[in-house]
Amino acid sequence: MNVYAMLADAVRRRAEATAVRWGESRLSYHAFDGVCAALGDWFAENGCMRGDRVLLFLRNGFAFPVLLMAPMRAGLVVVPVNAKLHPREVAWIAGDAEPKLVVTHAEYVADIRAVLPAGVAPRIVAIEDLSLPSPVERPLPPADVEPDDPAWIFYTSGTTGKPKGAVLSHRNLVASTVNCLADIFPFVETDRVLHVAPLSHGSGIYLLPSLARGAENIIYDRPGFRPDEVLDTVAALSVSVIPFVAPTMIVRFLEAAPRTDIGSLRGVVYGGATIHLEHIRAAVARFGPIFHQLYGQGEAPMTISYLPGELHRDADDDTLLSAGYVRAGVEVRLVNEDDRNVRPGEDGEICVRGDVVMQGYWRNPEATSKALRGGWLHTGDIGRFDGAGRLRVLDRRHDTIISGGTNIYPKEIEDAIAAHPGVREVIAFGVPDDEWGESVAVAVVADDALLDADAVLTHCKSNLASFKKPKHVLFLPELPKNAYGKVLRRDLREAYFKAAVLHNPSVR
């Protein structure tokens, strides 16, 4: 089954309803399908054949949804790339994916072409020069594909090295969409769905269930994330769902002025990183239990586990610190370093099995065999099931700090320090220690100019076991992050060593 067939069902039910809206421009479901079909003809005219890749390096905009869906409709493979990447990084991905066609903005065409690897010569088209074709009035059905044919290559964020392309098949995306509607978030036809995050990432994945349901999708294309403007849009257009935000965006919502005109908003799905306890409590207190947490990764899209909005209401700390319950259609086990199941209550690497799990990494058999050994996706995350059956994600396996032979999870330290009112952001990481092997360092972005290391360490003394307390505190104006908003711990370590060598007073 072609995953696009789920949208084709919505076209039959909701032909004249708005599928996509951007400013004053709209496409009905009938027109959306017709434009996607016409783009399929355009792909063929540009030499694209079944299985070829189409790379999208685009900011959010009106054309993005059709360019995202049209390749899959035609039996091609879409490769969406985060618009915040540098053209050199995009060129590396193009060298790996070898797309037949690249669609990007005019300002990037020359830069990408100049740094493409030898032998890689896709046609590069500027979106500004591409007029959406007139809809095909009586489009043919979506291309007949095999369930395990690639549909989408999702390049990982690459926090520890070069990104890898997670190959998602039509089967993967159908399972992900159905399971999302079953238990992550029940979109309905009357929803107005505001996409504020990059469509190349989680928000694009959430187009699938939203379109399958026949909802209206509103594309937010303002540069950066401006919480007041987002909430203005919610109020003006009676938005009911924001399908994917990062925890940092929730913090930004809390910084916006309180308002009483956003009662239409019934759901905000968040994930992609951990959220600190006091932030989600403050968000629920202000906006109500409209937040739905998901835990997942590009290799198993649209989540491994979820914590629905109603469980955020009057929730205890253990509930809010968890990633909720394993989702429908997914199996999860926790294993030790020998890939043996851990005992109940013990920590272990989170492993996942089910139709949502990727086919493998694009042209990377070594990484594929390592990640999918034994028929399970090894996520690299350490987790624990609590007595209520909820999954708690403790940390990334390679981020665990081992001090004196004891495992210390950075998230525990971050949660404790983030509770200090003078702290905006905090990240914990390990640094070499002659006596203990590793010791704990923290990088802090302060809200309070008077906050110093002594205040942070005093706070830790009251909230953390002695062996978990940081030995080093580094103050930074902001945390280094990649294009997906994930903190780059390797850059933090470099900043720490540089500051330590220079005897910088911002570190001690």
UniProtKB/TrEMBL annotation:
The lineage of its organism: Bacteria, Pseudomonadati, Pseudomonadota, Alphaproteobacteria, Hyphomicrobiales. This is AMP-binding protein. Pfam families: AMP-binding, AMP-binding_C. GO terms for molecular function: ligase activity, forming carbon-sulfur bonds. Residues 412-486 form the AMP-binding enzyme C-terminal domain. Residues 9-362 form the AMP-dependent synthetase/ligase domain. PANTHER family: LONG-CHAIN-FATTY-ACID--COA LIGASE, MEDIUM_LONG-CHAIN-FATTY-ACID--COA LIGASE FADD8.
